[in-house]
Design a protein that fits this description.
The chain is mainly α. The chain has three domains: 85 residues, Multidrug-efflux Transporter Regulator, Chain: A, Domain 2 (Orthogonal Bundle), CATH 1.10.1660.10; 55 residues, Multidrug-efflux Transporter Regulator, Chain: A, Domain 2 (Orthogonal Bundle), CATH 1.10.1660; 65 residues, no CATH class. Helices cover 54% and strands 8% of the residues. It is built from ten helices and six strands. The strands form three sheets. Strands 1-2 form a two-stranded antiparallel ribbon. Helix 3 crosses helix 6 and helix 4 crosses helix 5. The N terminus is likely disordered.
Length: 246
């Protein structure tokens, strides 16, 4: 698979390195800009055809600087533009073919005297099936069913999940390796629900507005507030444990 030209991720050291990197090294590079990315998310993006790392004879993934840059593009387009993976893949492939393309826009709506672009709604977010989630997270049906029973992973409809469930599943699994069981995480889920409710109270009036640009602004505000609450939560946990924030 070809890759996009360099110059988009802002990780100069990684881009300048012509050697191949392990998935752990790639994770550390990406976390500078995307602190919530996980190994499971990287594996999922590979399974969806967004990247194609090399493999050693023993099966280990090895990523080039171009792979890391492409991952940065994908994660940024998901985070900033709420684009589904199929649209992102088509856009990047067009760029790699040398075509002059702009970021996709879901549609256009007339606002006052002009015609303004409408930012993609949250409903365009990538969705995955149950089998895809199991494969990307590296868990079996029993584990996933247990996580669902505690509300840690919830389908948006029967057998269909938001792609962010891959990140949640990966984190739950990693915590389990340290002896923190899913039942122990119910308090964290309850706290997250309360934080989400607080954010929703702030942006709800914007979402109900008749102006489509105002509704688009609500999505951007939601993302901003979600990031701030996540950072605050992490800082408070570090403070409570007496460790420095990375």
């Amino acid at each position: 698979m070809p890759h996009t030209p360099s110059g988009g991720t802002g990780h100069g050291a990684a881009a300048a390195d012509t050697g191949l990197m392990s998935i752990g090294t790639v994770l550390n590079v990406l976390r500078e800009e995307f602190p919530e990315v996980t190994i499971s998310k990287i594996r999922f993006l590979e399974a969806e055809g967004l990247i194609e790392p090399q493999r050693t004879p023993s099966g280990y993934r090895k990523f080039s600087a171009q792979d890391v840059e492409r991952l940065g593009h994908v994660l940024r387009m998901q985070r900033d533009h709420y684009l589904p993976l199929k649209v992102i893949r088509e856009h990047l492939d067009a760029v790699e073919r040398g075509e002059a393309v702009s970021l996709p826009v879901v549609g256009r709506q007339r606002d006052g005297e002009g015609v303004e672009p409408v930012v993609a709604e949250a409903s365009t977010a990538a969705r995955i099936g149950r089998a895809q989630l199991l494969a990307a997270a590296g868990v079996d049906e029993r584990e996933l069913a247990e996580w669902e029973s505690y509300g840690l992973v919830t389908p948006v409809e029967d057998g269909v999940y938001d792609a962010e469930a891959v990140t949640v599943a990966g984190l739950v699994r990693e915590l389990g390796r340290h002896g923190i069981e899913p039942r122990h995480l119910r308090a964290m889920k309850a706290a997250a629900d309360r934080e989400a409710g607080l954010v929703d109270q702030v942006v709800a009036p914007l979402r109900r507005h008749r102006n489509p640009q105002t509704r688009a602004h609500a999505e951007a505000r939601t993302k901003e507030l979600a990031g701030l609450t996540a950072r605050l939560h992490a800082a408070l946990v570090h403070l409570a444990l007496g460790v420095r924030t990375p």
